[in-house]
């Protein structure tokens, strides 16, 4: 008998935890939205993921965007390095600031 009370207690604690974090409300809203959907989607799980805002890393479009982002970051870093080198080179040919002010 004590075993059943312990299980019920854990279940009640978990239920309170879900209620506190509004997980049950959110899941209920998503399931109601699925229920009210006039044309049921082929994949209910994908519908739930989309409505909950879960990113799907399997999406090839997302992977392409990540690769493009990585390339652009590398290109940006390379451009910054070239800019630094050119500024240093330019500084060699410019007169010091003190001489400019005197003239």
From TrEMBL:
<dbReference type="GO" id="GO:0003713">
    <property type="term" value="F:transcription coactivator activity"/>
</dbReference>
<dbReference type="GO" id="GO:0005634">
    <property type="term" value="C:nucleus"/>
</dbReference>
<dbReference type="InterPro" id="IPR026060">
    <property type="entry name" value="AMY1"/>
</dbReference>
<comment type="similarity">
    <text>Belongs to the AMY1 family.</text>
</comment>
<keyword id="KW-0539">Nucleus</keyword>
<protein>
    <recommendedName>
        <fullName>c-Myc-binding protein</fullName>
    </recommendedName>
</protein>
